Amino acid sequence: MTDVVLVFEVHQPHRIKRSFFWESKMFERVAKKDYFDYYFDSAMNREVFERTSRKCYFPSNSILLELIDRYKGEKKKPKFSFSLSGVFLEQCEMFNKDLLETFKQLADSGQVEFLSQTYYHSLASLYPEREEFIDQVKMHQQVMRDLLDYKSTVFENTELLYNNAVARTVEKLGYKGIFTEGVERILHGKSPNHLYLPKGLKKIKILLRNYKLTDDIGFRFSARWWNEWPLTADKYASWLAATPGDCINIFPDYETFGEHHWPETGIHDFLRHLPPEILKWWNLQMTTPSEAAQKHVPAGEIDVPELGGTVSWADLERETRAAGSETPCSGLSTRH
User: Fold this and answer.
1) What is the set of domains in the chain, with CATH numbers?
2) Cα distance between residue 317 and residue 302, in whole Å
């Protein structure tokens, strides 16, 4: 039976004030307690957060909670996973604690796994020194304990940034699994729908995002030019059922469901009907990343050298140059 692992990335950055550079404020003396309001546009952050909560987070969380409740007592259950940045959790505390409560309900369901990442959804893993990266991972571990009473065993680096050195560091931190992009240049003809070991390591397992199937939802769902439009839940589930492998990892931005594709496109109906359509197939079940990592034997080793080889999910090149442009994140925190 093939495992379908459905993971959602959730991040909202602290946006820098647009007028900051044009009003010659860069060299003004500011008290440390005023740094945050001096640099960041709180009004814009609140506006974006509230709009995305209304269009995406609240309705999508409600759908997942309804599905979890509907399948109580069933042998095959819908299971979901999230990777929430620390900065996103900050904004839940700042702008809407009711939203945070819905994530707590998901955590308490026993059918939702939360991944670990860097607190700021940052590019710290690319620095030659690892101290900042490790500090941010530990900060994220702490905020997950504080707000969701959760300890993660699987790691997702920002934009799935990955190389051998990142894998070594993450294994030393005690994680059992790590996600990256199932891009052809690291697979050399192998399938992304299996688990693998990092070069030279034996404990931590690599889970690979199936970017083609993920992008069918994330980028093409509402594309009327696409020859598969409209994408329905039963059609997509049939594609999963016909896909060989041990584990199919579907890993979109959560904002796909209502923000990137507006509710009027039918994206919430798709989310509502997809798990039941998956569970109808005899050869499919839904599972979490840690369950998949524990269950499946690695199909080989993957070598991703740090120098010139780092991969990510960003843009068509799926490497480091575009990753920074997708992660406008702060180095300041209200939790410091």
Assistant:
1) 2-12+42-326 (3.20.110.20)
2) 19
Give residue 20's pLDDT: 63
Three-class SS state of 331: coil
DSSP 17: P
Closest CA to 1 of 292, 283, 293: 283
What does the pLDDT read at residue 36?
81
Contact 13, 39 (CB under 8 A): no
pLDDT at 18: 78
pTM: 0.92
The Cα angle at residue 136 between residues 179 and 87, in degrees rounded to 5: 85
Compute how many other C-beta atoms are within 10 angstroms of the C-beta atom of residue 32: 7
Indicate which residues carry an active-site annotation: 159
Give the tens place of pLDDT for each residue, 188-244. 999 999 999 999 999 999 999 999 999 999 999 999 999 999 999 999 999 999 999
Three-class secondary structure of residue 294 per DSSP: helix
Residues 88, 103: contact at Cβ < 8 Å? no
Tokens at 37, concatenated = 């309001």
Whether the upstream peptide bond of residue 230 has omega within 30° of 0, thus cis, is yes
Contact between residue 80 and residue 60 where contact means Cβ atoms under 8 Å apart: no
Give CA–CA dist 196/205, Å, rounded.
Answer: 6
Q: For 259-279, how does the pLDDT look when each residue is reduced to its tens digit (9 = 90+)?
A: 999 999 999 999 999 999 999
Assess contact for 41 and 16: CB atoms under 8 A.
Answer: yes
